[in-house]
Design goal:
single chain, 224 residues, mainly alpha, Ribonuclease iii, N-terminal Endonuclease Domain, Chain A, 2 domains, three-stranded antiparallel sheet, 3 strands, 61% helix, 9% strand, globular
């Protein structure tokens, strides 16, 4: 329980029923009693809260712009990043197979756990408590969100950020190409002044891999 107390402090919420948090952290590889139902509930709560936050913050944004912004904020990659920021990998209950394969680092498992925790708090204390958690977890992302950015691809956003900082443009480097001709995976690196390492991306085309590398670089720079 001491370990879960640390997680509760990171969440900014203390459970009245700690078994709900334990269930939210239990992957289906462990038991039939797992976090999938809580994930289902948390997904609905998350979508509702983010939709309302965006609606209130951007009164001039169109339905399409709000939809794109919401999709970016609630997608699995974003949830997985939040899971890593919370250090959820240290608290997950995984079956032996998932443990051996590094499931505590897997994005889909982390994303599921974040949504399950939101659902667990709904069950523990109701909508307002769950809403408060979502707003806390997403505060910086909501502050950085903009309808204009929803139209721009990652390479454009990265270039504009670097230009605003009066830095040189990013350099993209093809690191490898794997697979047969019709199912190739491209591995691209992106070097940016101000980053100690290279941001990397993979995709079914060089363009997609570059976009992913640019997205990684942008997020790394934005956190500095």
């Amino acid at each position: 329980m001491a370990q879960l107390d640390r997680l509760c402090k990171a969440l900014g919420y203390q459970f009245k029923d700690p078994s709900l948090l334990e269930l939210a952290l239990t992957n289906r590889s462990v038991s039939n009693q797992n976090n999938e139902r809580l994930e289902f509930l948390g997904d609905a709560v998350l979508g509702c809260v983010i939709a309302d936050e965006l609606f209130q913050r951007f009164p001039q944004a169109s339905e399409g712009e709000l939809t794109r912004l919401r999709a970016t904020l609630v997608k699995g990659d974003t949830l997985a990043k939040i899971g890593r920021e919370l250090g959820l990998g240290d608290y997950l209950r995984l079956g032996s197979g998932e443990l051996k394969s590094g499931g505590y680092r897997r994005g889909s498992i982390l994303a599921c756990a974040v949504e399950a925790i939101i659902g667990a708090i709904w069950n523990d204390a109701g909508f307002e408590a769950a809403r408060a958690l979502v707003v806390r977890l997403y505060r910086s992302r909501l502050e950085d969100a903009s309808p204009e950015a929803a139209h721009k691809d990652p390479k454009t956003r990265l270039q504009e950020l670097l230009q605003a900082r009066k830095g040189p443009l990013p350099v993209y480097e093809l690191l490898s190409v794997e697979g047969e001709a019709h199912t190739q995976t491209f591995h691209v690196g992106c070097r940016v002044e101000g980053l100690s390492g290279m941001a990397e991306g993979r995709g079914g085309s060089r363009r997609k891999a570059e976009q992913e590398a640019a997205r990684q670089a942008y997020e790394m720079l934005a956190r500095q």
